[in-house]
Amino acid sequence: MLDQRWVFRDDVQAEPAGEGVTRRVLAYDKDVMCVENTFETGATGPLHHHPHTQITYVVSGVFEFEIDGVVKTVRAGDSMLKASNVEHGCVCREAGVLLDLFTPMRADFV
After folding, report:
1. Cβ(52)–Cβ(102) under 8 Å?
2. pTM of the model
3. How many CB atoms lie within 10 A of CB 77?
4. Where are the domains of the chain?
């Protein structure tokens, strides 16, 4: 999908990204990447960090996020900024979808 102008969600196969989590890598180029993550209730995104800056938008569901030691509950319409190398993770409290934007793109996802 690198540099692909049009990416239709239904054409992208969901891949496992942890127990109860699937990932769809959508449009991206070398500078930015859009990723959809679907979580079942109780699924986790374990605490981790990476050199990419990440913005997460909550499409649906309820999530408890920890970012740099601070824990907050977020819902549809909320968004979070995770700066480069800041530790973060989440627990899905109500099944939902997160949309992640990364800069630069995550080569490890393709």
Report:
1. yes
2. 0.95
3. 9
4. 21-109
